[in-house]
Amino acid sequence: MILELNGFRVIGMAKNGQEAIEMYSLLSEKPDIILMDHRMPIKNGLEASREILKMDNHAHIIFASADNSIKEEVY
To answer: Which domain holds residue 17?
Structure first.
């Protein structure tokens, strides 16, 4: 993985938004940064980001999307 090759430690990867929420809640050591895609099955990245921020309003999330229509909702 490119992140690990550049010295970053990846502590988890989720296949969908619901899995991301569940994984975050179970991590005893929270990540410094979460990379979140918008388009994911079950729950999209925006829904998952909102739920993670409800659990931990200090979470740092980098939200990525090629969908320009979501831009206003993310801010």
So the answer is: 12-74
Task: Kindly state the helix (H) or strand (E) to which residue 63 belongs, with its residue range.
Answer: strand 61-64
Write the burial class of residue 10 (CB in 10 Å: 0-12 exposed, 13-18 middle, 19+ buried): exposed
pLDDT tens column, 21-32: 999 999 999 999
Which tens digits make up the pLDDT trace of 42-61? Answer: 999 999 999 999 999 999 99
What is the tally of structural domains in the chain? 1
- As to burial, measured by CB atoms within 10 angstroms (0-12 exposed, 13-18 middle, 19+ buried), residue 49 is buried
Amino acid letter at 17? G
C-alpha to C-alpha distance for 70 and 60, rounded to whole angstroms? 19
- Is residue 45 in some structural domain? yes
Does the model's pTM come out above 0.90? Answer: no
